[in-house]
Design brief:
Order of helices and strands: EEHEHEHEEEHEHEHEHEEHHH
Helix content: 25-40%
Protein name: Solute-binding protein family 3/N-terminal domain-containing protein
Largest sheet: 7 strands, mixed
Radius of gyration: 18 Å
Strand content: 15-25%
CATH topology of the largest domain: D-Maltodextrin-Binding Protein, domain 2
Number of domains: 2
Number of helices: 10
Distance between the termini: 37 Å
CATH class of the largest domain: Alpha Beta
CATH architecture of the largest domain: 3-Layer(aba) Sandwich
Length: 255
């Protein structure tokens, strides 16, 4: 478990399948936004990170009153066990199908049709991909490679590079940022999916407790500050080679 040292009066545990490196900040964008807020709240909270699979994250939220997760989509099922921030941390363009071979198909392509071609597609067990895509995944688990455990999204990308998978479902911006040497339209091919057309928002979620409610309230106070918004805009613009920064800034309402 990795902790942010602080003279906190309330402990908060972030359950995450991607642990920060010891003594270092994670490179991914959303984690850095979370770290910014944590540092702003360090006089009131002691925050630590506990590694857990996607499925175990939600189990921990139901068992402990001070557990939170971040960069999570809101669903009716999840709202039964956790409370969510009203403000999203980040906005993503829809999930895409990323293949290591080209297909002669019009876009957007049907995921159901892709599975009928006999391709081995990897998805993360317990991850929310959106209502329509989740429905297709649930109906076709025997046709899919279901990755479970910590760091599984990154492991699926490695399997794709090794040729052990034909494709994965992932945000194109996330794939490009993690696989910066990936040659798009040469070694990897990105396809829009008919079942994934909606914009995806990632929220903070905490245990449905007084501790969780207060932490979300304090977290959002920082998110509403001009300094935080300036920090977000700067980080997004730095990553403009991999993400549609102007689009995300507009969707977040920071323009």
């Amino acid at each position: 478990m990795i902790s942010f040292a602080s003279s906190a009066k309330q402990e908060i545990i972030f359950a995450t399948d991607l642990m920060p490196d010891q003594g270092k900040r994670k490179a991914d964008l959303v984690s850095n936004l979370v770290y910014y807020v944590i540092e702003a709240l360090e006089s009131d909270y002691k925050v630590s990170f506990q590694q857990a699979s996607r499925e175990r994250e939600w189990r921990l939220i139901t068992k402990q009153n001070n557990v939170c997760v971040y960069n999570k989509t809101r669903t009716l099922e999840r709202e039964k066990v956790a409370i969510f921030s009203t403000l999203p941390l980040i906005v993503y363009a829809p999930n895409r199908l990323i293949l290591n071979k080209p297909l002669s198909v019009p876009q957007p392509v049907s995921f159901q049709h892709i599975l009928s071609l006999g391709l081995t597609i990897g998805v993360v067990k317990g991850r929310n991909y959106g209502e329509q895509l989740d429905s297709v995944i649930a109906e076709n688990t025997d046709r899919l490679y279901l990755g479970a455990g910590s760091n599984k999204a990154e492991r699926l990308e490695v399997m794709l590079k090794q040729g052990k998978l034909d494709g994965i479902v992932e945000y194109s911006s996330v794939f490009k940022s993690r696989q910066q040497d990936a040659r798009i339209d040469q070694d990897y091919f990105i396809y829009a999916l008919k079942e994934a057309q909606e914009v995806v928002r990632g929220f903070l979620a905490c245990a449905n407790s007084e501790v969780g409610k207060q932490f979300i309230a304090d977290f959002e106070k920082v998110m509403q500050s001009e300094n935080y918004r300036a920090f977000v805009i700067a980080r997004l613009n730095e990553a403009s080679n991999y993400i549609e920064s102007a689009y995300i800034i507009e969707q977040l309402g920071y323009k």
